[in-house]
Amino acid sequence: MKITAVRTKVYEWKGDVVPPRAHFSGSAMDLLPHKKESMASFRFHSWLVVELETDEGLIGLGNCALAPRIAKEIIDLYLAPLVIGEDPFDNEYLWQKMYRATIAWGRKGIGMAAISAVDIAIWDLKGKHCKLPVFKLLGGQTKNALRCYASKLYANDNLDEFLKEAKGYFDEGFTAMKLRIGYGPSDGPEGVRRNIEQIKALRELAGPDVDIMVECYMGWTLEYAKHILPKIARYDLRWVEEPVIPDDISGYSELKAMNLCPIAGGEHEYTLQGFKDLIERKAIDVIQYDTNRVGGITVAQKINNLAEAYQIPVIPHSGMMHNYQVCMATTASPISEFFPVYGVEVGNELFYYIFEGDPIPERGFITLDDTKPGLGVSLSDKYLDKFRIIE
């Protein structure tokens, strides 16, 4: 089997969007004065889809959501020539080829996201050729189903509305959920109080037997984190996510050493070596790579093996089928993220409008069909009129 063609498409949403509330989430922009809401630069309403075609007529699908137009150019100009004519079963060779050919400029960020999209498509091809789901190729099923947590509980100054949304997830059977912190260092003592009120209210509603995670999205400083962690530790949080910017590894290490709340990160880390560094520097309690950012399934499997050796849980960012497949095949992943199906707001929701086949939890658990080959998803034609497609 040989790869004969590489096609890229950018799906840009032109349909209705759900406007975000004020202070619905913190972000790395919070420290700066801004005229728009601080999450504006982190909301994405477009997605890149990669199709690899083989001489057998099979088509493998890959994707990434970071700067899709730029990622498309990287694949079209630099990566496609490296994989055309090659056997997708040589995925390690192909990954190394893409990585080393672009290492001068591509080993982090968008360059790695582009490699991820191609690698995911390669694994989809492998599964389709073998008529097996990807998780079977990675080692097989390690759990009957994937426990998952609801991950759309954005901050809301109206606590009644906030708790009503949370209760809806409990009623659906979720026993874990993640809330976003809406205030940061620039909001002063009042912001600290509002953050604590939200966490406290959710814990009181949930009781002691529900996992609660807190997402900071790089919006705190080290000083602010050290100030607030002792105040929220009493609420028995499963983890505090991305409290500081991802390059502040020493800050992560200091917060972890406080041993007040488990510290999670890695959504914005891009290499196996990067996670090795985080582990060796005792910087994180939970690893949160995203398969379509970290180098694809080839690298995700390596990080899972590394994490297993150090007994650090892996809970990938964003759920979605490319992450569910690798989670199913490793004992390092005890739980998965799930973004409830919703109107287009931040942008993660676009996956449901572009692809068909992504599983929906039942009573808080996701099952993967071992009769669906490859990733188990296909391109949808239901919402094509809502997208501008750039080929």
CATH homologous group name of the largest domain: Enolase-like C-terminal domain
Remind me, CATH topology of the largest domain?
A: TIM Barrel
Question: For this structure, what is the CATH class of the largest domain?
Answer: Alpha Beta
What's the number of helices? 12
Count the strands? Answer: 14
Overall, the morphology is globular
- Report, as a whole number of angstroms, the end-to-end distance: 25 Å
Helix share bin: 25-40%
Strand content: 15-25%
CATH architecture of the largest domain: Alpha-Beta Barrel
Secondary structure category: alpha/beta
Strand count, sense and barrel status of the largest sheet are: 8 strands, mixed
User: Mean of residue pLDDT?
Assistant: 96
| Residue runs with pLDDT of under 50 for 5 or more positions | none
The multimeric state of the shown protein is single chain
- What value does the Rg take, in angstroms? 20 Å
Order of helices and strands: EEEHHHHEHEHEHEHEHEHHEHEEEE
* Count of spatially separate domains: 2
Task: Describe the structure concisely for a colleague.
By secondary structure, this protein is of the alpha/beta class.
What does the secondary structure layout of this molecule look like, with pairings?
Blueprint lengths: L2 E11 L32 E9 L4 E6 L3 H16 L7 H11 L8 H21 L3 H4 L8 E8 L5 H13 L4 E5 L7 H19 L4 E5 L6 H11 L6 E3 L7 H10 L4 E3 L6 H9 L5 E2 L9 H14 L9 H9 L7 E3 L11 H5 E2 L8 E2 L11 E2 L7 E4 L1
Parallel strand pairs: 4-5, 4-10, 5-6, 6-7, 7-8, 8-9
Antiparallel strand pairs: 1-2, 1-14, 2-3, 4-12, 11-13
Helix pairs in contact: 1-2, 1-3, 2-3, 5-6, 9-10
